[in-house]
Amino acid sequence: MKVSKAVVFERAGEIKLREVTLREMHADDVLVETYWSSISAGTEKMLLSGKLPPMPMTQFPVVPGYETVGKIIAAGANVPENHLGKFVYVSGSLGYSDVNAAFGGASQYLVSPVHKTTDLSMLPDVSVGLALPLAATALHATDLAQVSGKKVLVLGQGAVGILVAEFARLFGATKIVATDKVISRLQKSSADVVIDAGRAPLNAATQPAEFDAVIDCSGAMQAVDESLNFLMMRGAVVLAGYYERIDLSYAQAFMKEIKFHVAKQWALGDLERVRELMRTKALDFKKIFTHEKALDETEQAYRTAFENPDCLKMILSWQKD
């Protein structure tokens, strides 16, 4: 049995970098050596605090992570030899025998079915593949809003919100307004108008019933509720955050016949669509990566990602050079 260093959430609030045991490879599996992983300040923070919905895979001790880029160094009997040596994105791994995985990507080595990897070999810079999951999530939310020719309000300029604003522009939105309470995030935004939600109300820069669509990337139900006043008749709300409950004033939704969409990660084919945009450098996906730490700074990396509002996305580098 092969062992691997991995980030392990031992119990609520406790992070360790320690050895775990990988399961045996099957014929359709590959073994990936990790070069970079990044940290989700949303899902992984909820996991560490014990606030994710209880499921078998979220029980401590657990390996987190679903944003990993590495190189295939071994392959099962059914995997073509030309996969060896390729860099791939891996959305996590269940390949452990002594810990749970939610979603298991923060490990020095990963055992994964080959069909759950995404080839990055065509990219000029394979490390940008770390942005694939968040970019695909942002792409899906933008698709649901059908932004072409529309005025769009984006709530929250975290990593997903910044990418939503980028996609909205790419797909022909006529006006994009973005809000956040963190100035450093607003400074990275490509929106036409940015609003410091901590200091100025929305009506300081916009008019009631101005927008065709609201895309929420803040996860703040109060912000969504307040935004309904700025939607046109039969406007749309896309919920692209994660919420414990949906709690909205019904009168606005009723009077305007507002349509609600819930965006769950990405749709089939979205990873490949984003990869093509990465290949052609149509968008600057690396702008969301603001911090990077080495493996011996693992706990500090996670604390920074979870606690520093200026940290959009933290990269954890698994290689020494």
**Poorly predicted ranges:** none
| Average pLDDT number | 95
Using the coordinates above, name the CATH class of the largest domain: Alpha Beta
CATH architecture of the largest domain: Alpha-Beta Complex
Shape: globular
Q: What is the β-strand count?
A: 17
- Radius of gyration over all CA atoms, rounded: 20 Å
Give the CATH superfamily of the largest domain. Medium-chain alcohol dehydrogenases, catalytic domain
What is the ordering of alpha helices and beta strands?
EEEHEEEEEEHEHEHEEHEHEHEHE
Output the CATH topology of the largest domain: Quinone Oxidoreductase, Chain A, domain 1
Biggest sheet descriptor: 7 strands, mixed
Task: Give the count of helical stretches.
Answer: 8
Can you give the helix content as a percent range?
10-25%
Number of domains: 2
% residues in beta strands: 25-35%
Kindly name the structural category: alpha/beta
Task: Please report the distance between the alpha carbons of the first and last residues.
Answer: 27 Å
Structure description:
- By secondary structure, the protein is α/β, with parallel strands linked by helices.
- The protein folds into two domains: 3-124 and 281-317, Quinone Oxidoreductase, Chain A, domain 1; 133-262, Rossmann fold (3-Layer(aba) Sandwich), CATH 3.40.50.
- The chain has helices at residues 43-49, 132-145, 159-170, 183-188, 221-227, 250-256, 270-279, 298-307, and strands at 3-11, 14-21, 29-39, 62-64, 68-75, 87-90, 100-102, 109-113, 117-119, 151-155, 175-180, 193-196, 211-216, 231-239, 259-262, 289-294, 313-317.
- The strands form four sheets. Strands 3, 5, 6, 8, 9, 16 and 17 form a seven-stranded mixed sheet that branches. A six-stranded parallel sheet has the order 12-11-10-13-14-15, with helices on both faces. The chain has a two-stranded antiparallel sheet with strand order 1-2.
- The model has no long low-confidence stretch (mean pLDDT 95).
